[in-house]
What we know:
Blueprint: H1 17-75, H2 79-92, H3 96-123, H4 125-132, H5 139-165, H6 168-191, H7 197-221, H8 231-265, H9 268-304, H10 312-336, H11 338-346, H12 353-379, H13 383-437, H14 443-458, H15 460-467, H16 471-492, H17 498-508, H18 514-526
Helix pairs in contact: 1-3, 1-5, 1-6, 1-8, 1-9, 2-3, 2-5, 2-9, 3-5, 3-8, 4-5, 5-7, 5-9, 6-7, 8-13, 9-10, 9-12, 10-12, 10-14, 11-12, 11-16, 12-13, 14-16, 15-16, 16-18, 17-18
Amino acid sequence: MPKSKKQDKIIANENSGKDIGEKTVRVASSIMLGRIVSLFLSAIAFVIIARVLGPSTYGVFTIAIAIATFFAAFGDLGVGTSFSKFVGQYAAKNDKDSIEKIFSNGYAIMLITGIFFTLLIFGLSNIIAHYVLGSVSYAYVIQIASFVILLTMIFSASYYAIIGFGKGKYLTLIIAIQYTIQALASILFVLMGLGAIAPLLGIILGYIAGLIIAAYVLYGKMGLRLRKPDLKSMRELLGFSTPISVYNGLRALINNLSPIILGLFATTVIVGNYGVALKTVNILWLIIDALSLSILPMFASTFAIKKLSKQISKFYNNSIALTFMVMVPVLFYIAVLSKQFSYTAFSAKYLLAPLYLSIISIGILLWVIATYTVMLLIAANKTRKLMKYSMAIAIMEIILMLLLVPWLSGTGLLLILFIISPTVLSILSVKAIKSELNLDFDLGKIVRIVIAGIIGAAFLVPLMLILSENYILVLAMGAVVQIVIYPVILMKLKGVVKEDLDSLKNISKKLPVANKVIELFVNYSERFI
Length: 529
């Protein structure tokens, strides 16, 4: 299709592995930049909200947002993920017509399901408040949370579409605005004494602000036009997206229903500890999320261009290895010093948060493998196999919840969600890419990186014993120890090689400020090769 207008340049025809790699880095870097910009305000808002609300009220918010997030993921019907996949695929073929068709029918599907679930939860607010939160007086919290459902669906789909296009600068803008508005509004409403609905109102305002910018980008700057949806195209889209919806829906069912189940067997104080620990590590997950979101269109583009399909194994393994290389020392640092970190940030009122934080930190690494491999299966159109796996794992999780949560409370729940489930999903999905795509997972490299992280984390134990109750000093000295020791051990164990460090340095060039830090890390690490 000839590019007769400037707006037609929004679709790039990627011709080489280098082009696709650079585009992926650009998108991931832009998402990460937006996350970093918003991370500071989000962290401050989180600490203030948790401190002001206290464990009990924060537990009410945790349950309310879990309900909204679950129905948003379920109502999405996999359309958001499909946007990312197909936009990347069609962009590689310069097919703008198909992209507009996908958009129009996808948004029609989400508007129908989004409005339905929003009205459903709003109407059932009294019943939900009574049986889940223990009092009908909390019905207004559920009602406010119901509006998050539709907004989450539309915002996420628009966001995924822009990721597929690879428009990094707009992603940075959207993320920064959304999180900034959300953080500032949440702090303001909490200080105004609005209780559990304060962070919910902040989330709503953040999504509205982000949607305004996303709409301007997609339909103003990029020139896309909505068409009249048709039932045939909607059915075709649902044929691909429904298995993804089952996967997303079941993950949302387990992840967001889990605090509700926990609330049935434990007090809101325990749920509050659970929510604080989960939120803490979720802030770090924002960085990992930037990478995982960008690799789906990368995989899809690689499969679309036949001459590049042989490089998919390299892209896949490098993505996991680089993520582990950066995140292992951070997550192990939090896992070992969870008490010092939790008590300093949230006070000793959250007694169970350190234990919960340690379990989640380790589990995040397992979820990296599972998530990246799932994205590869989606890009290869192996969604039905993914659906089978997710159904089997969900059944396993429900059975284990009924057995472990009444007995081990929050600890049992976290072991299910962050240790058992990602391990099983990783094993199944890695076997699938071997049998279906003839791709191998480089386990040896990951094991060497993890061993380096464990040895580095072991050096933190003497600090805990020597400095005892001086938590801030332990945290500061621990960070220094990790920075100095981890790269040395990583190089000696050959967890990474020169090529990996070069790749990391190239990626960091797209990151303002962070590129200098990563460059120092790479230069320091190269001394021990």
